[in-house]
Amino acid sequence: MKRLNKTKLWLAVVIALFSLLFSSRSWAGLVSLSFGPTINGSIGEKKVLALGYEHALGAPSLKLDAGTWNVPGGMAFYGALNIGVHVVAESGLTARIGFGPALISHPDDRLTGHFQFNIQARLGLNMGGWETGLQALHLSNAGISLPNLGRDVVSIYIGIPIGGRGDP
Predict the structure, then answer these.
(1) Residue among 32, 35, 151, 18 at smallest CA distance from 94
(2) pLDDT tens across 64-94, in order?
(3) CA atoms of 162 and 83, how far apart (whole Å)
(4) Do the Cβ atoms of 95 and 105 come closer than 8 Å?
(5) By Cβ atoms counted within 10 A, which residue in 1, 3, 65, 162 is the most buried?
(6) Does residue 119 sit within a domain?
Protein backbone atom coordinates (compact mmCIF):
# COMPACT_ATOMS: atom_id res chain seq x y z
CA MET A 1 0.00 0.00 0.00
CA LYS A 2 2.89 2.34 0.79
CA ARG A 3 4.35 1.92 -2.74
CA LEU A 4 0.96 2.70 -4.29
CA ASN A 5 0.72 5.97 -2.34
CA LYS A 6 4.26 6.96 -3.44
CA THR A 7 3.36 6.17 -7.04
CA LYS A 8 0.21 8.29 -6.86
CA LEU A 9 2.21 11.17 -5.39
CA TRP A 10 4.82 11.03 -8.20
CA LEU A 11 2.08 10.92 -10.83
CA ALA A 12 0.25 13.87 -9.25
CA VAL A 13 3.45 15.95 -9.18
CA VAL A 14 4.22 15.17 -12.83
CA ILE A 15 0.66 15.95 -13.98
CA ALA A 16 0.61 19.21 -12.00
CA LEU A 17 3.98 20.31 -13.37
CA PHE A 18 3.09 19.64 -16.99
CA SER A 19 -0.37 21.22 -16.55
CA LEU A 20 1.23 24.37 -15.19
CA LEU A 21 3.71 24.55 -18.04
CA PHE A 22 1.18 23.95 -20.79
CA SER A 23 -1.35 26.44 -19.38
CA SER A 24 0.88 29.40 -20.28
CA ARG A 25 1.38 30.56 -23.88
CA SER A 26 4.75 32.01 -22.89
CA TRP A 27 6.01 28.43 -22.38
CA ALA A 28 6.13 27.52 -26.04
CA GLY A 29 8.54 24.65 -26.40
CA LEU A 30 9.17 21.08 -27.44
CA VAL A 31 7.39 18.11 -25.88
CA SER A 32 9.35 14.89 -26.31
CA LEU A 33 8.53 11.24 -25.81
CA SER A 34 11.36 8.72 -25.56
CA PHE A 35 11.55 4.97 -25.10
CA GLY A 36 14.51 2.64 -24.80
CA PRO A 37 16.36 -0.01 -22.78
CA THR A 38 19.04 0.32 -20.14
CA ILE A 39 22.46 -0.67 -21.43
CA ASN A 40 24.17 -1.66 -18.18
CA GLY A 41 23.47 -4.45 -15.74
CA SER A 42 21.38 -6.99 -17.62
CA ILE A 43 21.09 -5.24 -20.97
CA GLY A 44 17.49 -4.38 -21.76
CA GLU A 45 16.32 -5.67 -18.37
CA LYS A 46 14.72 -2.30 -17.67
CA LYS A 47 12.73 -0.39 -20.26
CA VAL A 48 12.51 3.38 -19.78
CA LEU A 49 9.64 5.57 -20.98
CA ALA A 50 9.96 9.33 -20.53
CA LEU A 51 8.00 12.50 -21.26
CA GLY A 52 9.96 15.72 -21.53
CA TYR A 53 9.36 19.42 -22.02
CA GLU A 54 12.10 21.71 -23.33
CA HIS A 55 11.94 25.50 -23.25
CA ALA A 56 14.46 27.08 -25.61
CA LEU A 57 16.19 30.26 -24.48
CA GLY A 58 18.07 30.68 -27.76
CA ALA A 59 20.76 27.98 -27.89
CA PRO A 60 20.59 27.40 -24.10
CA SER A 61 17.53 25.43 -23.05
CA LEU A 62 15.78 24.21 -19.93
CA LYS A 63 14.35 20.66 -20.02
CA LEU A 64 12.04 18.92 -17.56
CA ASP A 65 11.67 15.15 -17.73
CA ALA A 66 9.43 12.63 -16.04
CA GLY A 67 9.99 8.96 -16.69
CA THR A 68 9.43 5.45 -15.47
CA TRP A 69 11.07 2.04 -15.64
CA ASN A 70 10.04 -1.41 -14.54
CA VAL A 71 11.06 -2.79 -11.12
CA PRO A 72 10.02 -6.08 -9.49
CA GLY A 73 6.40 -5.67 -8.45
CA GLY A 74 5.78 -2.32 -10.13
CA MET A 75 7.27 0.80 -11.62
CA ALA A 76 9.95 3.28 -10.55
CA PHE A 77 9.62 6.96 -11.43
CA TYR A 78 12.08 9.79 -11.94
CA GLY A 79 11.86 13.51 -12.45
CA ALA A 80 14.74 15.61 -13.75
CA LEU A 81 15.67 19.20 -14.47
CA ASN A 82 18.25 19.59 -17.21
CA ILE A 83 20.05 22.75 -18.32
CA GLY A 84 21.82 22.46 -21.65
CA VAL A 85 22.61 23.69 -25.12
CA HIS A 86 20.39 22.84 -28.10
CA VAL A 87 21.55 23.67 -31.60
CA VAL A 88 19.91 23.13 -34.98
CA ALA A 89 22.00 23.37 -38.17
CA GLU A 90 20.56 24.73 -41.43
CA SER A 91 20.67 21.15 -42.74
CA GLY A 92 18.19 20.14 -40.01
CA LEU A 93 20.68 18.18 -37.91
CA THR A 94 20.10 18.89 -34.23
CA ALA A 95 22.11 18.19 -31.10
CA ARG A 96 21.54 18.83 -27.40
CA ILE A 97 23.65 18.16 -24.33
CA GLY A 98 22.79 19.05 -20.75
CA PHE A 99 22.95 18.12 -17.10
CA GLY A 100 21.11 18.70 -13.85
CA PRO A 101 19.53 17.21 -10.71
CA ALA A 102 17.05 14.32 -10.64
CA LEU A 103 14.89 12.50 -8.09
CA ILE A 104 13.98 8.80 -8.24
CA SER A 105 11.24 6.96 -6.40
CA HIS A 106 12.98 3.58 -5.93
CA PRO A 107 16.73 3.43 -5.17
CA ASP A 108 18.26 0.10 -6.16
CA ASP A 109 21.61 -1.65 -6.61
CA ARG A 110 22.68 0.83 -9.34
CA LEU A 111 21.06 4.04 -8.03
CA THR A 112 21.67 4.57 -4.31
CA GLY A 113 19.54 7.27 -2.71
CA HIS A 114 16.64 9.29 -4.08
CA PHE A 115 18.77 12.28 -5.19
CA GLN A 116 20.66 11.75 -8.45
CA PHE A 117 22.19 13.75 -11.27
CA ASN A 118 21.37 13.33 -14.94
CA ILE A 119 23.40 13.89 -18.08
CA GLN A 120 21.61 13.81 -21.43
CA ALA A 121 22.80 13.94 -25.03
CA ARG A 122 20.64 13.94 -28.15
CA LEU A 123 21.40 13.76 -31.84
CA GLY A 124 18.60 13.99 -34.34
CA LEU A 125 16.87 15.63 -37.25
CA ASN A 126 14.69 18.75 -37.04
CA MET A 127 11.87 18.97 -39.59
CA GLY A 128 10.08 22.31 -39.25
CA GLY A 129 10.22 22.24 -35.46
CA TRP A 130 9.43 18.51 -35.14
CA GLU A 131 12.39 16.38 -34.07
CA THR A 132 13.35 12.74 -34.00
CA GLY A 133 16.57 10.95 -33.18
CA LEU A 134 18.60 9.12 -30.55
CA GLN A 135 19.00 10.14 -26.93
CA ALA A 136 21.42 8.96 -24.24
CA LEU A 137 20.67 9.39 -20.53
CA HIS A 138 22.96 8.74 -17.58
CA LEU A 139 21.63 8.83 -14.01
CA SER A 140 23.98 8.55 -11.03
CA ASN A 141 24.64 10.14 -7.65
CA ALA A 142 28.04 11.56 -8.77
CA GLY A 143 29.82 9.74 -5.95
CA ILE A 144 27.74 11.22 -3.09
CA SER A 145 27.26 7.70 -1.77
CA LEU A 146 28.62 4.29 -2.70
CA PRO A 147 28.12 2.29 -4.79
CA ASN A 148 27.89 4.80 -7.62
CA LEU A 149 27.12 2.50 -10.56
CA GLY A 150 24.46 4.62 -12.22
CA ARG A 151 22.02 3.71 -14.96
CA ASP A 152 22.49 4.36 -18.68
CA VAL A 153 19.68 4.44 -21.23
CA VAL A 154 19.75 4.75 -25.01
CA SER A 155 16.40 5.67 -26.49
CA ILE A 156 14.59 6.86 -29.57
CA TYR A 157 12.79 10.17 -29.14
CA ILE A 158 10.25 12.25 -30.98
CA GLY A 159 9.81 15.95 -30.27
CA ILE A 160 6.59 17.82 -30.97
CA PRO A 161 6.53 21.66 -31.01
CA ILE A 162 3.85 23.34 -28.89
CA GLY A 163 2.70 26.93 -28.47
CA GLY A 164 4.13 28.28 -31.70
CA ARG A 165 7.68 27.12 -31.11
CA GLY A 166 9.80 26.85 -34.23
CA ASP A 167 13.47 26.00 -34.29
CA PRO A 168 15.36 26.83 -31.08
Answers:
(1) 32
(2) 999 998 887 788 999 999 999 999 999 999 9
(3) 19
(4) no
(5) 65
(6) yes
